[in-house]
Design goal:
The chain is α+β, with helices and mostly antiparallel strands. The protein contains twelve helices and nine strands.
């Protein structure tokens, strides 16, 4: 280390940021910075911070909506809404206003300037002021009930409802609760900071007042990127890796096959969009915690530590569906979650699951926790529904879980700057 560097280091140790700020009133900042060398150091730090923040912005506009193939963020704030207005023009205006606001929020900006009128509240609620965009993505979807609700075609859209956009069938063992099901619209806000995600949803709901109200909402989390520098597959609350088998989002051909709606699939307005299935799955953590590790691994058909399927060494090794042990039994149990979810491997879904924890269940005194299961696909009738049908019938994991909430939405295609999300549907 050079003498000058030592001098700077020593000065840095002696002069705190508070000292600098105290000196500001006396006009001494320049003197202190110049003498200590901190001016250069602070400018470098600020430059790095600016660069970092720029890397935390996910573009809102594009061919597809963000938040689908985007690298999964640390947190999600998901909300389902019911439309209260009966006027189509107000619904269209809502999507236009949402588009403008979402584009600003995705860049870490406020949704509007402070009001100069002392009798009006500010346009932005302010709790994210000074925070970075935190890789915020906002994804909008429409549910079956937007097209037909109680036999009423409220907005003249019934002729545009895709055959795939219908309420999911009731699966065996479902214990759905009304307060966690359905919705006319949905907003999925994902970010690496929960306050940023909440701020986005809060302001979008505020914009919707008089036109739509919240039906249900759920937050979720994964391990943070800071805690997992290796960027490994996240683990669910049962301690097992969740999301190992997903289509490769970097391969356009695979995405077009499994995730993005294609021309000819149905109404053209949804081309480049995707279908989102949401399931709120309660996990009986206390029961699981009393199970042996062997029992837990047999339930998933994977080793907990490595995530590798039975008979293999690594997490992403190909499943050996035919291998049998010395007893003539399949090495991968016939009722294991991995075996049943995989099937013949022809049907895949893009999973973006998050854990949730809502404190304590007051009735039982146990954890109110589980999985907010989010998955995207091109054709629910050929992807999620057959997969869940298999799982619902004989998945050993059913002994430890219960499906409490369910909804399906058509996530609209993306839009260009100057357009708005939903314009293909409404035009």
């Amino acid at each position: 280390m050079s003498k000058n560097t030592n001098s700077i280091a020593n000065s840095s140790a002696k002069i705190s940021r508070r000292d600098i700020l105290k000196t500001a009133g006396a006009g001494g900042v320049g003197v202190i910075l110049g003498a200590s060398g901190l001016g250069g150091l602070l400018s470098i730090t600020e430059s790095k911070a600016t660069t970092k923040e720029a890397h935390e912005i996910v573009p809102f506009y594009g061919k597809h909506q963000s938040g689908i193939t985007t690298k999964t963020q640390n947190h999600v704030y998901f909300v389902s809404l019911d439309v209260t207005t009966s006027k189509k023009e107000e619904l269209v205006q809502l999507f236009k206003d949402w588009t403008n606001a979402a584009a600003l929020l995705s860049e870490g900006k406020a949704v509007g300037d402070l009001s100069s009128n002392e009798f009006l509240p500010p346009k932005d609620t302010g709790e994210a002021a000074g925070l970075s965009a935190s890789n915020l993505t906002i994804t909008f979807g429409v549910g079956p009930s937007l097209f037909i609700k109680g036999n009423q075609d409220r907005f003249g859209l019934s002729g545009k409802q895709p055959n795939e956009l219908v309420d999911l069938p009731k699966f065996p063992l479902d214990a759905l609760e009304e307060e966690w099901t359905g919705g006319d619209l949905c907003i999925q806000a994902c970010a690496d900071d929960l306050q940023v995600a909440f701020h986005a949803v809060r302001n979008l709901i505020r914009i919707a007042r008089g036109k739509a109200i919240m039906r249900w909402a759920q937050t979720g989390f994964q391990r943070t990127k800071q805690a997992d520098s290796k960027n490994e597959t996240p683990r669910n609350l049962f301690g097992f890796k969740d999301g190992t088998v997903n289509p490769d989002v970097t391969k356009e051909k695979e995405m077009n096959k499994q995730v993005w709606v294609q021309p000819g699939d149905g109404p053209d307005w949804l081309v480049n969009g995707s279908y989102l299935v949401v399931r709120r799955i309660q996990m009986f953590i206390e029961v699981w915690d009393r199970s042996t590790l062997k029992e837990q691994e047999n339930t998933f058909g994977r080793y907990r530590d490595s995530g590798a399927p039975f008979g293999q060494k690594n997490e992403f090794d190909k499943l050996d569906m035919e291998h049998k042990n010395d007893k003539g039994e399949y090495s991968l149990p016939v009722d294991s979650h991995t075996r049943l979810s995989h099937g013949d491997g022809s049907r895949q879904i893009l999973r973006r699951a998050y854990s949730y924890s809502d404190g304590m269940d007051l009735k039982t005194g146990s954890f109110d926790a589980g999985l907010l299961f989010l998955c995207f696909q091109r054709t629910p009738s050929k992807q999620f529904i057959p997969i869940q049908t298999r799982l619902a019938k004989m998945d050993k994991l059913n002994e430890y879980t219960s499906h409490r909430g369910s909804a399906i939405f058509a996530c609209l295609p993306g839009t260009k700057s100057g357009g708005f999300i939903g314009e293909t549907l409404f035009n």
